[in-house]
Design a protein that fits this description.
The complex is a heterotrimer of chains A (361), B (342) and C (315).
Chain A lengths: L4 E12 L2 E13 L4 E5 L6 H8 L8 E9 L2 E2 L5 H7 L4 E4 L3 H4 L6 H12 L4 H14 L5 H4 L9 H13 L5 E5 L7 H18 L2 E6 L2 H7 L2 E6 L2 E7 H6 L4 H8 L49 E2 L8 E2 L5 H7 L1 E2 L2 E2 L18 H5 L2
Parallel strand pairs in A: 3-8, 3-9, 6-7, 7-8
Antiparallel strand pairs in A: 1-2, 1-4, 4-5, 9-10, 10-12, 11-12, 13-14
Helix pairs in contact in A: 4-5, 4-7, 5-7
Chain B lengths: L26 H11 L1 H18 L1 H9 L11 E4 L2 E4 L27 H37 L1 H16 L2 H15 L1 E3 L2 E3 L5 H10 L1 H16 L2 H8 L4 H38 L10 H9 L7 H28 L10
Antiparallel strand pairs in B: 1-2, 3-4
Chain C lengths: L1 H28 L5 H6 L5 H11 L5 H13 L4 E2 L4 E2 H36 L4 H15 L2 H15 L14 H35 L2 H8 L4 H32 L1 H7 L4 H10 L3 H29 L2 H5 L1
Antiparallel strand pairs in C: 1-2
Helix pairs in contact in C: 1-13, 5-6, 5-8, 5-10, 5-12, 6-8, 7-8, 7-11, 8-10, 9-10, 10-13, 11-12, 12-13
The chains are: A alpha/beta (361), B mainly alpha (342), C mainly alpha (315).
C-alpha cells in the first residue's frame, strides 16, 4: 500500500554565524490521499521547517537537507529545481500563516491567482481569470469578479486567507500544506477557514498537512497527529489515541495547558515550565528531559520512536517510561496534564530542575 | 558565511518567536564582535585615523620639517634641489614639482606655497569642519527628531514642515547659498559672532544643512518607539517628559545614532570640499582640500600634482570613513533597516 | 486617486510658498549687514547701494520687500550688479547645457545603477558582489569634481581622447555627445554607486519577504519570481529616490561638474557668481532650484502612489 507522501528520516540543518542549527532531526511520517495530518508543536519545534522543506523552500547555500520525502513516486529532497517547480502549486500547494504579508501588496489579487494558473496550465488570460473568479466564489468571497481587481490590503484577514486557499487549490493539488493558516485570524474566522478545509478534503480528496500549535484546531480537523519537539517527532498517532491515551510527557503538557470551560477555573493556568531547547547546542539524549518532571537516568540516551502500546500499532512515541507508569503519571486530578517541575524529585535518580544545566552550552 | 543569505534561520526562537542572540551576549557586545571580525572595515578605519593624525600634526610638520607656514608665499625665492638652485616658481609661472625632500616635499603651488604643508593644514581644516558640522547635525538633528516624534501634534507639525523645507533644497545649493551670504557678512547669532572668514561658518552651514537627514529618520523611529509600552510605563511613574525622552527613548536610538555618525562625517567632509571648491566654503587664503583642487585645476596640464595630492587625500579619507561606517552598520544592523533618505 | 493628487498638489503649493519665504529670508534678512550691500557685491559704490535700496525697497516693511523680491524674480528683472547683466537671460542661456547634462546623466545612472544593483544582489556574497561593493563605495566617496578633474586630466589633456571643455549645442549631435560624455560619466558615478547599493539592499530585503516565498511555492519560474515580484517591488523606492535626486541635480547639483568641464550652464553661472560673491544670481538660482525640487517631489509622490497602491490610502 503506497502512501501519497512518505517522509523518512528528514534532517534539515542551517549554518549560522554562531554555528550549526539542527532544525529538523530525523522526522518520519506518511500521509494518504484524503487524510488530514496535523503537525503540532511550539515555536522552534521544527514543524514549519519540515512543512517548507517538503516544497523545497528551505534550500539555500547555508542549509543542508537530508533524508527522503516521496510524493506520489517523486523524491522531493533531491529533486532538481525544475522538477520541484512543476510540483509546487500544481501537485503540492502551500498556504502560509500571515496572509497580509504572504500576498504581493502591489499586485491585484486576481492577477496573483491567474499567475499561478498560467504557470502550470496553458490557458488564455481570460480563461485563467474566469477560473480564478470561480475559485474565489467557491471560497465564499462575495462579488468575486469585482474583488479580483482589488489589492490585498483592501481585504480583511479572513478573506485574504480564503484568497490564498483559492490560489493554492487553483491547479487541483493532491497535497495541501497549511502552515498555521488560522494563527493570524480571530477565532470566529478560524472556524470558517477550518470548515472550508474540511469541505475541500471531502470534495476533492486532497491530502492536508496542517501545521499548528493550537490543539483546538487539531481536534477540529485532524485524522492523525504528529507532535514535534526540539526538531524531533515525539509522538504520532490517530487523533483519538493522542487525545485519550497520550504517551509522551510533552503531549501531556500540551493537553494539560489547554484552558477548560467545563471545569472550575484554576488559580493559575497550567504551563510547561522551562524553555525550548537551544537547537544550536541541543541537550544530550531526549530533548524534552530538561523540562520533564519524570525524567530519569535513561533519558540521557535518545529514546527511539516506536509503538509501545498494545493494540495501537499506529501510535508511536519517544519515551522510555513504561506504558503503565505513563498512564498513572499523566493524571493530575481527573485530567491529563504535566506535573509541575517540583514533582521531579519524587522520581528516581535525577536531581530536580536540570533545565538550566542542560540548555546552557 | 553571511547570515543575510539565509532565508529562514539565524538563532533559535524563543516562545514569542523573537530571535535570540547566542546565549549571554547583548546586542552591543554582539555588534562589537562582528565588527572586530570585519578586517576590511577596521583596516579602513585605521587609514582614516592615520590621515587624521597626520593632519592634526600639521603645525608640527610645518615648523619642524618644512620650515614654512601654509600661507607663506615663496614666489620669488629659490631653493636648493640636489645641488642645483631652482626657482620655486619659474618665470613662466610654473611652480616646482615634488622635490621629495623636507622643503616643498610635494612641490609648490602657483603662489609658491608648500603643497605638503597646505595639504596637511587643509586636511586639518576639512576634518575639523567635518567633525564640528557632524556634531551640530547630530545634536540638533536628534533633538529635533526626538521632540517632533515624542510630542507629535502641533509641535511635530511645525518642526516637520521646517525640516521638510530645509530638506527640499538640494544640499549643495543650500550650502552654496548660505555660504555665499555668510562669507560676505559673517554670522551673528545672539552673543556668538563669527567673521566671514572663520572656519566655523562653513561648519555651521554644513551642520545645519544635514539636520533633516538625521531628524527625519530619528523622528520615524521615535514615533514607533513611543507606541511601546515602556514609555507608558515610565509616564505612569510620573516621569516628566524630559526624563522619558532622555532615559527611555534616547538609549533605544543609540544604535541608529552610532550608525549615522560616520556617514555624516563622510558627507560633511565631501560637502565642505564641494563648497570650498566652488568658493562658498573655506575662503582663501586658508587651505582646504576643496579649494586646493579648484586652484590647481588651471595648472592640471603642467603640474597635475596640485590637483592629485589633495584629491587623493580627500578620497582616501572619505573612503576610509565610509568603509568603516558600512562596517559599523553591518555590525549593528545587519538587516540594514537604518538608511539615510536622500 | 484623484483626491490624492489634489491634496498632494495643494501641499506642494504651500511648500513652494514657504520655500520662497525662506529663500527671501536667507538672502535679505539674515541679521547684520546691509542687504543692499550684499546684493551689490564686493565692488559696489555707495550710489549703487543707495539705488539698490530704493528699487528693492529695503526701506519698506518686510512683506513689501518680500513681494518686491518675488516680483523681480518671477518677471525676470533681477540684475546682477557686478556684471550689469539680466540674471534671467543668463540662466536661459545656460539652460540647454544644464538640461543636457542632467538628463543624460540621469538616464545613465538609472540604467547602470539598477543593473549593477541587481547583479550584486543576485550574486550576493560572491566575488562579483564584493568588487562591485568596493567600486560603489569608491564612487560614493569620491566627489564629482575630483572624478571630473581626474578624467579630464587622463583622457583630455594627457591623451586627447576627449575634447577639453565646452559645451556644443545639440544642433551638432555628434559634437554634443562627444563633449558631454565625460561630464555624464562624472555626474553619474556617484549615483550609480549609491543606487546599486540601495537596490541591492532592497532586493535582499524583499527576497526574504513572505510573498516571495509564496510566489516560489506557487511554482513560478525563477525568472518570474525575480522580475515580477522581487525586482518590481524593490524598484518602487528607487523610483522615488530617482525623482528627488534628479530634481536635486537639475536644481543645482550640476554646479561642480559644469565648473570642471567648463560647460557654461546654469550651474557654472552660479559658481562664477559665488566666486565673485555676486548675490542676485545666486538668489534667483537658489529659489528656482528649490522650486524644481519641490515640484519634482510632488510628481514623484504621485508616481509612487500609482506604483504602490498602499500609499493611496495612507495619506
Amino acid at each position: 500500500m503506497a502512501h501519497l507522501l512518505e517522509v523518512k528520516d528528514l534532517r534539515v540543518a542551517f549554518r549560522t554565524e554562531d554555528g550549526l542549527v539542527q532544525a529538523v532531526d530525523g522526522v518520519s511520517f506518511s500521509l494518504d490521499a484524503g487524510e488530514v495530518l496535523s503537525v503540532v508543536g511550539e515555536s522552534g519545534s521544527g514543524k514549519s521547517v519540515t512543512a517548507m522543506t517538503l516544497l523545497g523552500l528551505t534550500r539555500s547555500p547555508n542549509s543542508s537537507v537530508e533524508g527522503s520525502a516521496v510524493l506520489d513516486g517523486t523524491e522531493l529532497v533531491t529533486a532538481s529545481e525544475e522538477t520541484l517547480r512543476h510540483i509546487r502549486g500544481a501537485k503540492a500547494a502551500m498556504i502560509f500563516q500571515d496572509p497580509i504579508s504572504a500576498l504581493n501588496p502591489v499586485q491585484r489579487v486576481g492577477d496573483q491567482v491567474v499567475e499561478q494558473i498560467r504557470a502550470h496550465d496553458r490557458v488564455s488570460r481570460k480563461a485563467a481569470m474566469d477560473r480564478a473568479v470561480n475559485l474565489m466564489e467557491r471560497m465564499g468571497i462575495p462579488r468575486a469578479r469585482e474583488r479580483a481587481r482589488a489589492f490585498p490590503h483592501e481585504f480583511s484577514g479572513g478573506m485574504r486567507q480564503r484568497v490564498m486557499i483559492a490560489m493554492a487549490l487553483s491547479c487541483s493539488p493532491r497535497l495541501l500544506v497549511a502552515d498555521e493558516p488560522t494563527t493570524a485570524l480571530d477565532v470566529t474566522i478560524q472556524a470558517q477557514i477550518l470548515a472550508e478545509i474540511e469541505d475541500l478534503r471531502r470534495e476533492t480528496g486532497v491530502a492536508v498537512i496542517l501545521v499548528t500549535h493550537d490543539l483546538g484546531v487539531v481536534a477540529e480537523v485532524a485524522d492523525r497527529v504528529v507532535v514535534m519537539y526540539g526538531g524531533r517527532v515525539v509522538e504520532e498517532g490517530a487523533l483519538v489515541d493522542i487525545f485519550e491515551d497520550p504517551q509522551h510527557p510533552y503531549t501531556w503538557g500540551l493537553l494539560g495547558s489547554v484552558p477548560r470551560v467545563d471545569r472550575a477555573r484554576p488559580e493559575r493556568l497550567p504551563t510547561i515550565a522551562g524553555q525550548p531547547p537551544s537547537l544550536l547546542h541541543p541537550p544530550r539524549g531526549c530533548h524534552f528531559a530538561p523540562r520533564c518532571p519524570h525524567a530519569f537516568a535513561q533519558c540521557q540516551d535518545v529514546p527511539p520512536l516506536k509503538a509501545r502500546v498494545d493494540g495501537q500499532s499506529g501510535h508511536l512515541d519517544r519515551c522510555w517510561l513504561d506504558v503503565a507508569d505513563k498512564r498513572k503519571l499523566r493524571l493530575i486530578g481527573n485530567d491529563i496534564g504535566l506535573a509541575a517541575t517540583q514533582a521531579a524529585s519524587e522520581h528516581r535518580d535525577l536531581p530536580p530542575d536540570r533545565s538550566q544545566e542542560l540548555t546552557q552550552p | 558565511m553571511i547570515a543575510r543569505d539565509i532565508p529562514f534561520t539565524h538563532a533559535p526562537e524563543d516562545a514569542d518567536g523573537e530571535a535570540q542572540p547566542s546565549a549571554g551576549l547583548g546586542p552591543y557586545r554582539l555588534a562589537l564582535r562582528r565588527l572586530r571580525r570585519n578586517h576590511v572595515a577596521l583596516g579602513f578605519a585605521g587609514l582614516f585615523l592615520l590621515i587624521l593624525i597626520c593632519c592634526l600634526c600639521a603645525p608640527l610638520y610645518a615648523s619642524a620639517i618644512a620650515h614654512t607656514g601654509p600661507n607663506a608665499e615663496h614666489l620669488t625665492q629659490t631653493i636648493n634641489v640636489g645641488g642645483r638652485t631652482v626657482d620655486v616658481v619659474s618665470l613662466q609661472g610654473i611652480p616646482i614639482g615634488p622635490t621629495w625632500h623636507s622643503r616643498f616635499l610635494l612641490g609648490a603651488d602657483s603662489n609658491g606655497e608648500d603643497v605638503a604643508v597646505r595639504l596637511l593644514y587643509g586636511g586639518r581644516t576639512s576634518i575639523i569642519i567635518g567633525g564640528t558640522a557632524t556634531l551640530i547635525t547630530m545634536v540638533l538633528g536628534v533633538a529635533a527628531g526626538v521632540v517632533a516624534g515624542y510630542f507629535r501634534g502641533m509641535v511635530d507639525g511645525i518642526l516637520s514642515r521646517v525640516l521638510d523645507l530645509i530638506w527640499s533644497y538640494p544640499v549643495v545649493l543650500l550650502g552654496v547659498a548660505l555660504g555665499t551670504v555668510l562669507a560676505l557678512t559673517g554670522l551673528h547669532i545672539g552673543p556668538v559672532v563669527l567673521k566671514g572668514t572663520s572656519l566655523m561658518v562653513p561648519a555651521c552651514i554644513i551642520g545645519f544643512v544635514f539636520i533633516p537627514y538625521v531628524a527625519k529618520p530619528i523622528r520615524g523611529q521615535v514615533l514607533s518607539l513611543r507606541e511601546k509600552e515602556f514609555v507608558d510605563a515610565a509616564r505612569s511613574l510620573a516621569a516628566g517628559h524630559l526624563r522619558v525622552m532622555v532615559s527611555e527613548i534616547l538609549p533605544n536610538l543609540s544604535s541608529t545614532i552610532v550608525v549615522f555618525v560616520p556617514l555624516m562625517i563622510a558627507n560633511a567632509i565631501l560637502l565642505e570640499a564641494g563648497l570650498s571648491f566652488v568658493g562658498a566654503g573655506v575662503q582663501p587664503p586658508n587651505p582646504s582640500w576643496g579649494n586646493m583642487i579648484s586652484d590647481g585645476l588651471q595648472y592640471i596640464s603642467t603640474t597635475p600634482g596640485l590637483v592629485l595630492a589633495p584629491a587623493i587625500m580627500l578620497v582616501l579619507a572619505v573612503l576610509g570613513i565610509n568603509v568603516f561606517g558600512e562596517g559599523v552598520r553591518d555590525a549593528l544592523d545587519p538587516r540594514a533597516q537604518i538608511r539615510i533618505e536622500h | 486617486m484623484g483626491r490624492f493628487i489634489v491634496r498632494r498638489l495643494f501641499s506642494m503649493l504651500v511648500v513652494l510658498f514657504l520655500l520662497s519665504v525662506l529663500t527671501f529670508l536667507i538672502f535679505q534678512v539674515i541679521p547684520n549687514g546691509n542687504p543692499a550691500l550684499r546684493l551689490a557685491g564686493r565692488t559696489a559704490t555707495p550710489q549703487t547701494i543707495a539705488a539698490i535700496s530704493r528699487t528693492w525697497g529695503f526701506d519698506q516693511p518686510i512683506w513689501t520687500q518680500y513681494l518686491i523680491t518675488m516680483h523681480k524674480i518671477f518677471t525676470g528683472s533681477v540684475i546682477s550688479y557686478n556684471q550689469q547683466l539680466n540674471v534671467f537671460s543668463q540662466i536661459k542661456a545656460g539652460l540647454p547645457a544644464t538640461l543636457s547634462l542632467a538628463i543624460g546623466a540621469g538616464i545613465i545612472w538609472l540604467f547602470f545603477g539598477v543593473l549593477l544593483g541587481l547583479l550584486s544582489a543576485l550574486r550576493a556574497g560572491k566575488f562579483v558582489d564584493r568588487v562591485l561593493a568596493i567600486l560603489a563605495l569608491g564612487g560614493i566617496s569620491t566627489p564629482s569634481f575630483v572624478i571630473g578633474a581626474v578624467l579630464l586630466y587622463l583622457l583630455a589633456y594627457r591623451t586627447n581622447v576627449f575634447p577639453n571643455t565646452g559645451y556644443v549645442s545639440i544642433t551638432d549631435p555628434l559634437g554634443w555627445f562627444y563633449h558631454l560624455l565625460l561630464p555624464w560619466i562624472t555626474l553619474a558615478i556617484l549615483f550609480i554607486g549609491l543606487y546599486s547599493r540601495v537596490l541591492r539592499s532592497n532586493i535582499l530585503d524583499t527576497i526574504n519577504d513572505d510573498y516571495v516565498r509564496t510566489a516560489k511555492a506557487k511554482g513560478l519560474s525563477r525568472r518570474r519570481v525575480i522580475v515580477r515580484h522581487v525586482l518590481r517591488n524593490s524598484l518602487i523606492p528607487v523610483v522615488s529616490l530617482f525623482g528627488l535626486d534628479f530634481a536635486g541635480v537639475l536644481g543645482g547639483g550640476t554646479i561642480l561638474v559644469e565648473t570642471v568641464f567648463n560647460l557654461n550652464g546654469v550651474g557654472q553661472y552660479a559658481q562664477q557668481s559665488i566666486a565673485a560673491l555676486d548675490v542676485p544670481p545666486v538668489l534667483v538660482i537658489t529659489m528656482l532650484g528649490g522650486f524644481a525640487v519641490v515640484i519634482f517631489a510632488a510628481l514623484v509622490d504621485i508616481v509612487y502612489a500609482v506604483l504602490d497602491p498602499r500609499i493611496r490610502l495612507a495619506s
